[in-house]
Amino acid sequence: MNSASKAAANETQELPQELIELSALIAALPSPHRSRLSTTMDRVVDGARRRRRILTLVQEALGQLRLDMKYLMFDLEATRRERDAFRRGSEGDADEA
User: Would you put residue 59 in left (φ > 0), alpha (ψ -120 to 50) or beta?
Assistant: First the structure.
């Protein structure tokens, strides 16, 4: 698959099927009607792509947040274990004195 067909496949994947069908229907219209609707259709397509990019960014950010939370929970548990071990060690020192 060449880069042009990959780009075309990527564009159609990020658009809802209804917009692809509507775009095909608009392309089949006579020229005067097509020119009136194509500008609006372009804005709708751009908005759909923008929303898709934003959704992808939000999903990636949420995934990263989940991972960060797992690391923080692991670190918290390790810190608690170290604290408890330190307390047990210092209690043993107090018993010897």
Answer: alpha
**Looking up tokens 């949420």, which residue turns up?**
62
Q: Please, which residues have CB within 8 angstroms of residue 16's CB and are 6 or more apart in sequence?
A: 48
Token look-up 């923008």 returns 50
| Whole-structure pTM value | 0.64
The tens digit of pLDDT for each residue in 41-83 reads 999 999 999 999 999 999 999 999 999 999 999 999 999 999 9
61 contacts 68 by C-beta, under 8 angstroms: no
Amino acid type, 30: P
Instruction: With beta carbons less than 8 A apart as the criterion, state whether 19 and 48 touch.
Output: yes
**Tokens representing 81?**
């274990």
What is the distance in angstroms between the CA of the first residue and the CA of the last residue of the chain?
78
Instruction: Return the SS3 of 34.
Output: helix
Which residue type is seen at 23? S
Do 52 and 14 meet the contact criterion of CB atoms below 8 Å apart?
yes
